[in-house]
Every structure is written in C-alpha cells, then in structure tokens.
Write a structure and sequence with these properties.
Length: 120
C-alpha cells in the first residue's frame, strides 16, 4: 500500500467508494479504482471537498479500458445532481469514465484541481 493510498476499490461497491471519499475529504490521499464498473444507486453526488492533496485514479483494466462510474441507477431513481463535484482544492480525478449522470458529469470549483484522462 502506497503511503498516500486510502483504498483500492476492486469490486462494484458504492459504499466502499463513499467511505474512501469521506477519508479523502478529511485527510487527502488517493483512492484507486481497480474494477471495470462501480454502479451508483443513491441520489447523492460524489463530492471532493478537501484541501489536502488527493483524489481518485482509475487503473486500466485487462481489456484496455478504464474503470467506469455509472450513475444510471441513480439517474433512473430521479437524481438530477452532478456525478462528481469538486469544491475543494488540490484535488484530482484521473483515468475514469463517468457515465449516465443525472446532471453535469463533473463540476469543478476551488483551485489547483486536476482532471486528466476523464471521459464524461
């Protein structure tokens, strides 16, 4: 485990992702997603609000694709919110596919935030 690693999500587990994001927002660090998809079922967006450097990185899968965070079930349940909202600073989202958002796929505010190789 890298010094800044909060968690590596290796299966379709929204709860594990949200718990890791809570830690990220408090302490900074990196969440790695090493699964083909995480389905988001709840209506709540994923919020990165911290100021300590940190974020989410997708790990390329064996089929050559990057992980997907799929908001279809959330959207179908009536969610109209953004998929990911960054209001903190020094945050990053890298190597992910964000799909089926009920609103904007990604919203960025704050400073020194990085979005790299993200399809939304």
């Amino acid at each position: 485990m890298a010094d800044d690693e909060i968690a590596t999500i290796t299966k379709d587990d929204e709860t594990a992702l949200r718990e890791a994001v809570n830690i990220l927002n408090k302490n900074g660090g990196t969440i790695y997603i090493n699964t083909s998809v995480i389905n988001i079922k709840t209506k709540d967006k994923i919020q990165l609000t911290g100021t300590n450097p940190g974020g989410i990185i997708g790990i390329k899968q064996s089929n050559g694709e990057y992980p997907r965070i799929d908001f279809k079930q959330s959207r179908d349940a009536g969610a109209t919110v953004r998929a990911i909202q960054i209001t903190g600073s020094n945050q990053f989202v890298k190597y992910l596919i964000l799909e089926n958002s009920g609103g904007n796929a990604i919203y960025i505010k704050g400073s020194k935030n990085t979005i790299d190789h993200v399809i939304a």
